[in-house]
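Posted in: Structural Biology > Protein-Ligand Complexes

Title: Requesting predicted complex, zinc ion in pocket

I'd be grateful if someone could produce the 3D structure tokens for the following input. Sequence and ligand are given below.
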Amino acid sequence: MIGSSVVVRTRSWIVLCLGGFLGCSAVGSPALAADCPGHPDALGTSRTLVVDPREHPRIGTMQYRETLPLKDHEVVLTFDDGPLPKYSYQVLKILADECIKATFFIVGQQAKANPEGVRKLVAAGHTVGTHSMSHPLTFDRMPNEKFEPEINGGIEWTSAAMTDPAQLAPFFRIPGLMRAEGVENYLISRGIQIWSADFPADDWRHVSSDRVYQLAIQRLEAKGKGILLLHDIQARTVAALPKIIRDLKARGYRIVHVVPATADRPATPTNPVEWLLHPPTETVPIARWPAVPHFVFAESRTLPAPSLADLNARTEHQPLLPRRTRGQMDIASTLPVPGRALFAIPEGSVEVLLSTTLSRRAATRLAMAAETPHAARGKVAKGKTAKPQARHTAHAAPAAPNHAAQIKSAPPRPTRVASLKKRA
Ligand SMILES: [Zn+2]
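-- Reply #1 --
Done. Output follows.
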């Protein structure tokens, strides 16, 4: 496409240059607002982006992770379903008046019926891709034997309409954006780039041209840049387009023309993150969880333990805080860090430790034996411990025998009888 596109573009520029000789110096280069002959206030095309379909086979954030590597306030205009002379030629005129280059996705049947329309698009220097043969909205559930002829028919008839079939861009937009893995894999295997979009303007719906204009601008403003999906077969699109372009200019947007890479023209160098609509910036990691700080606990040796007074808190108003006596707090704040030598085990001390442990166990056993009868008596005699158990078993069905004995030994509780009477 590229080798001869310059010639075609030159031809189109010669036509445009008839109105004003000064602009002819811009032949073959992207149009800028300042050098759009006869239209000094034109939006123009700020740059040409060369893309390699094999490197980035799926684009358009409406459906895919990646989109065109556009800078902020850059827009790519795309038009589907044509050419339909009645409207497509008006779209061509509007774009020519603004020196804007766009991308058109042709339906095979339209190319078959209006081959001249395809040639006009190419002659005007626009990029021409395809959009199936008959525009079925069932690509998402078609078997290979159905979608392959649809894709190939569109390519065949569109390229047949061209003077030089090599000018057909390997760009494809699935009708109705009804994507499917099988369809995408087939297109990718053929080196064809799948174009979704970043935002539509709903110009295929029964809405006013004003609504199309509003949606185009609102959605573009929301994303700040991207691929706008329009249709050059709709009266409302023709009516909305001049207003959209004027507003793009007023808001500081720039038009980017996209062409496929060829042997003669390598892809525009880009960074992989540029193919994301909003590449991560340096501020993004800051928004994530902070890393766990590397505390050096050994240094706590020099820090005194804080007292409640340090926290400016009055202990009597802090009932939920664990209470500590002044003495405990003083100890905590003045305790020295034990030295290493304290934990050192002197040689031959294993026997000493063992004997100490054994004697401790023996002492514990003796103490338990001495305390057992006393402890048992204390449990039964103490009303405080018996009470909650009795309350519990009163609500439980069959009480355990030892619990029953405890209830018997518990003192009568007149208050409980009173409460039962109240309930009755
Ligand atoms: Zn379509």
